[in-house]
Amino acid sequence: MKNRLKVLRAERDWNQADLADRLGISRQSINAIETGRYDPSLPLAFRIAALFDCPIEAIFFAD
Q1: pTM value?
Q2: Residues spanned by the domain of 47
Q3: Residue ranges in the chain modelled with pLDDT below 70
Q4: What is the DSSP letter of 2?
Q5: Does residue 57 lie in a domain region?
């Protein structure tokens, strides 16, 4: 699964630690999601979408 997480984060001038703090997860998890090494759980994907105020499909998409 690919994602636009890094782009959305950069648009807000947040680093990985900032985003991780807002989501209550580790910075390493953010890095793994951004690089495609880890697909977030559905609840986490919903939290990410809510934080960026957009649908999940606008962040995550099939390869």
Answers
A1: 0.93
A2: 2-52
A3: none
A4: E
A5: no
pLDDT of residue 58: 97
Q: Helix, strand, or coil here: 47?
A: helix
Residue 46 within a domain: yes
In total, the chain counts a number of residues equal to: 63
Q: Angle formed by the axes of helices 27-34 and 16-23, to 10°?
A: 110
* Bridge partners for 60 per DSSP: 3
Per the structure block, which two tokens stand in for 45? 């994907």
**Residue 27 in tokens:** 């910075």
Give the count of domains, the chain. 1
Q: Is residue 35 part of a domain?
A: yes
Residue 60: how many CA atoms within 13 Å on its side-chain side? Answer: 18
**14, part of any domain:** yes
Q: Coil, strand, or helix at residue 21?
A: helix
